[in-house]
Amino acid sequence: MKKIAFLLIFVLCCFTFSGCGSLYNYTKDLTSYDMDILYDETKHALTIQQTTDYVNTSNNILSYIKFHLYPNAFREGAKAKVVSVQNSDLAYPNGESYGDIKIQSVETSGESADFEVGGEDENILTVNLKNELYPNDRAIIYIEYEVTLANINHRLGYGENAVNLCNFYPVVCMYESDDFVCDLYNSNGDPFYSAVSDYDVTITYPNSYILASTGNQKTQNFELVKKTNILAQCVRDFGMVLSKEFQQKSGVIDDDLTVNYYYYNDENCDQTLEFVKKVMTFFEEKIGKYPYSQISVVKTNFVHGGMEYPNMVLISDNIIDDETYELVIVHELLHQWWYCVVGNNQFDYGWIDEGLTEFCTVYFYEKHPDYNRTMSEMISSATKSYKTFAKVYESVQGSVDTSMNRPLDEFATEPEYVYNTYVKGTLMFSTIYDLVGEKRFVNALKYYYENNLYKIATPSTVIQCFSRGTGKNLEDIFTSFLDGKVVIK
Ligand SMILES: [Zn+2]
Asked: Left if phi > 0, otherwise alpha if psi is -120 to 50, otherwise beta: which for 286?
């Protein structure tokens, strides 16, 4: 996600194969989601039948499976807020509005199953299995449910111009350290953590709408409705946006990557599409091949600057100036590499994807002087703004916590999260860039990417890969930043 807070702008935000592409020889068995969705525009609701074919990748025998129910964070009385108080007016243009998810029935192995909607904040669905599930075995869970949308400019909700359908479905919680990871929604950052999976989704919707989404679409037109089937393989999440006002421009890179731009007002749409192609081409060269066949940039109603989903990024329609609009596009497209392909626990270690994404954005501008931003100016601006943040916090609160390795719910405020994750993350990678030089840094980007395709990177993965990729032991630099010991001068 991109939150706008400082610098020149640090926006608040966000083949044919089995497995993940012959390109990278990913052959691991994946969990798959099959969904049949009906969108009711009058009720602003989705009726969904979902079949999840879950693979037990743990070493434990499981008797139940847990799913996140993110739409319940949008309900009245939710403990976890979806936006901070400061962003509330922008998010809710017509006042308070609520949505939720109602689980109607669950089956496993073709029979009705025991299930419970619970967790700390009605955020978790627990499904009890008929039979114990052994490591590497599969369980099929069929769920019928309805999602009601709030009138909110957010990842999930309907706004004036578009309907954002992201984090709308029960997604299996990651399983780590002998338990499912069930973190709550959080208005800071992107509170998501998931494994790459395969998706086969069919959505039926009024034929006045245009659909942007993750994956590859095939649409049938009927008298009143459209029915679109979407296939997406080896993706970390799945999102869609519907709008009656979308216009679409498309281009191709290297004959194998389609670039789509969906917008409802952009006088410079051709220029925007060319910019997207330029960004994708540049980072395919500097980081590694983008392994999917399409990327869609979607201008939509969104409270923050932008938000990333596999094959699709949301860019806010409330960004006024072209330069900021482009900067947010660079940021969100970089998340295709950092988060979507190389995954991380965004709840616990937001700096892993946000810090590297922000610094790579700076690197893009350094290598494209036509856009009038240089690395030295951007880093100097980031340094100044970080120092101001630390000074203000110290004077108001008596002390400032500058550690970076904290889960989202341990940052007291939104600025504390943004400055320690985005801004300090930029300064950390900039320090490493200055130390090792461009060639070794780019080598580390490629090394980190190639060795973590579709996997989950942890802090130690980042430290090891950047040390190996640059040929320098960077552990002390990383830990001094992460632990808050380094003094920003
Ligand atoms: Zn981001």
From this structure: alpha
Q: How far apart are CA 75 and CA 405, in angstroms?
A: 30
Ligand 1 centroid–CA 137 distance in Å is 35
Work out the burial of residue 246: count CB atoms within 10 Å of its CB; fewer than 13 is exposed, 13-18 middle, 19 or more buried.
buried
Boundaries of every domain in the chain: 27-243
Inter-CA distances, 40 with 20, 213, 221, 227, Å? 33, 18, 17, 13
Q: Which two tokens stand for residue 121?
A: 């904040």
Between the CA of 306 and the centroid of ligand 1 the distance, in Å, is: 8
**Residue 431 alpha carbon to ligand 1 centre in Å:** 20
CA of 410 to the centre of ligand 1 (A): 19
* Mean per-residue pLDDT over the chain, rounded: 94
Share of the chain above pLDDT 70, in %: 95
Class of the CATH-defined domain 27-243: mainly beta
Q: What is the DSSP letter of 236?
A: S
pLDDT digits (tens, 9 = 90+) for 142-165: 999 999 999 999 999 999 999 999
**Which amino acid is located at 99 in the chain?**
G
d(CA 314, ligand 1 centre) in Å = 11
- Decide if 13 contacts 307 (C-beta within 8 A): yes
Classified as helix, coil or strand, 53 is: strand
Amino acid 250 reads: S
Q: What angle do CA 61, 63, 68 make, to 5 degrees?
A: 110
CA of 356 from ligand 1 middle (Å) equals 9
Per-residue tokens: 108: 């496993």
C-alpha of residue 13 to centroid of ligand 1, in Å: 7
Strands (DSSP E) found in 190-268: 197-206, 210-213, 216-221, 225-235, 239-243, 247-253, 257-263
Taking the centre of ligand 1 as the mean of its atom positions, its distance from the CA of residue 124, in whole angstroms, is 25
Q: Per residue in 246-285, pLDDT tens?
A: 999 999 999 999 999 999 999 999 999 999 999 999 999 9
Distance 442 CA to ligand 1 centre (A): 20
Rounded to 10 degrees, what is the CA torsion of 65, 71, 74, 75? -70
DSSP letters of 143-187?
EEEEEEPPS-SSSEEE-SS-EEEES-S-EEPPEETTEE--PPP-S
Q: How far is the CA of 3 from the centre of ligand 1 (A)?
A: 7
CA of 96 to the centre of ligand 1 (A): 27
Contact 305, 11 (CB under 8 A): yes
